[in-house]
Design a protein that fits this description.
single chain, mainly beta, four-stranded antiparallel β-sheet, globular
Amino acid sequence: QVQLLESRGGLVQAGGSLRIFCAASGFTFDWYTMYWYRQATGKEREMVASISDTGERTNYVDSVKGRFTISRDNAKNMLYLQMNNLKPEDTAVYSCNARWSNNDYWGQGTQVTVSS
């Protein structure tokens, strides 16, 4: 059974930091490119960051470059997103996503709220 379980998000003040993670099971984690997406209320879902299967390549949306860091631990089947200098516009539901070949798996999402 495939599972992607995100950690609890939370409420953070602007300028603060938060680390969320995604625990994967039920598939061969180190075959998959992993993504963090977010969706704010009334907005379309956007890709925040991606990381290759080995972790060697990462990619970020311009709005989080220099503030967010995606990482993974293939030995533990874990995906992380370190978010620093958070802004109110980072408020959204964050979801992890795993993709390989025709397989496309999603977590349930976790709410991150940044207060001004």
